[in-house]
Design brief:
Blueprint lengths: L5 H10 L2 H7 L2 H13 L4 H15 L8 H9 L3 H14 L2
């Protein structure tokens, strides 16, 4: 998980297009992410970590191609599950 300072996040937020700001706080996207993770029987803690990583990706701190690796390393889930989650996030959110 990248070590992002509050100042870095604020600077990036100020430059982020409105459509991406809305995507980060979208209830629809949150429901999609939560559903995808629940289908894989992940704990709430892991789902929150994955949501944070997805937000970091939307903000440009994580390259989309690196998201599965970050999820695997951050949550210690099997790479196949991380790949499946990213595939669904990519298809339904990104």
């Amino acid at each position: 998980m990248p070590n992002i300072t509050k100042q870095q996040a604020l600077n990036r937020w100020d430059k982020l297009p409105m459509v991406l700001r809305e995507a980060i706080f979208s209830e629809r996207n949150a429901d999609i992410l939560w559903g995808v993770c629940e289908t894989q029987h992940l704990s709430e803690d892991k789902i929150y970590r994955i949501a944070t990583l997805a937000g970091d990706t939307i903000m440009g701190f994580i390259h989309p191609e690196d998201l599965a690796k970050e999820i695997k390393e951050t949550t210690n889930i099997h790479s196949d599950i991380a790949d499946l989650i990213v595939k669904e996030i990519d298809r339904k959110i990104f």
